[in-house]
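Bug report (template v2)

What were you trying to do?
Predict the complex of my protein with MRU.

What happened?
Run completed; filing so the output is reviewed.

Input:
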Amino acid sequence: MNTEQFFEQVLSVRLTPDREALDIIDQTLLPGTIRRIRLETKEEIWEAIKKLRVRGAPAIGVTAAYGMAVLSAKSKETDFDAFYKDFKALKEYFASSRPTAVNLFWALDRMDACAQKAGESGLSIPEVCKRLYSEADAIREEDVQISRSIGEIGFGLLKNLKKEGEPIGILTHCNAGTLATAKYGTATAPMYIALEHGWAGTDMHVYCDETRPLLQGARLTSFELSSAGITTTLQCDNMASLLMKSGKIDIVFVGCDRVAANGDAANKIGTSSVAILAKHYGIPFYVCAPSSTIDLKTPHGGQIPIEMRDPEEVTKMWYKEPMAPEGINVYNPAFDVTDHSFITGMITEKGLCTEPYGEAFARVGIG
Ligand code: MRU
């Protein structure tokens, strides 16, 4: 299977051919089982986001957008005000699924603005719904282009690191890959673009942090990259320091769930430890950040809401027997915030941004 066919097989989310439901790959079953499931009701869509069947900031945004389109089209209302009241309630419901990735709220706001504009133009409800489908399609298509642009910039950084007869060592944390987006991923896009430019999978060696407790690195990223023929090694999160010290890592690429106006970046729990280690060992640390993930309304990282998750993800989920005493207190934040001072650069689709981030975002046209 070539990389394009693989992208198609693991596509995170799309509409079913009848456009009446969502078709997602159930990421909780990977890598052992590749199963696509149909989501028809609002409860099924909410549960799929909450339980990480579909996950990764951009993919959550696309899912919510398609969810709004599909469920709005089932409305029996003929009056816009009544239709819009249900629309707002649905928006609030989806917004309650996960708090950290801003792409969810960004996509819901875009759908809301689209509905309002269509309503103000006096369109019939079926016409409003057509607009909503088009907006959701646009969100998905834009994500493909955004990831590609991020990949091109990241590939430029990889080219500068190219060594004769030795692969470039890349470390990544969590999964900011095709499964987390509409096609190329963000942190993985530079590698996929490198393949398109004729690099061999052996020109790069990607080290995937396992990413406790939900193992996105082990289950998803190492699956994705090895399937694409890229040399891939999996390590536990607590092995990153030794790995960096050994000189095997030339660059770090990670994704993000919400970037504050000052460049502080929330991403999967453990990312900030990787950034601190990278700075210690003098390894460039890049955050791959679509502009939809940059939240200029949040001044700094301390104001980013951090999702807390079920203790059983730490104590039981992956084991035959519980791995901790019954009833033990568990600390299970899903994300942490990397201070902007540990970030070498932020790769947005509009350009590479560096400190001071506020000014850099404005310069490339974000905000
Ligand atoms: O809890 P998850 O698996 O949804 O967390 C995902 C991440 O932290 C990703 O790195 C982030 O969403 C970027 S995806 C391009």
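What did the reviewer find?
Residues 315 and 328 are 9 Å apart (CA to CA). Residues 125-161 form the longest helix (37 residues).
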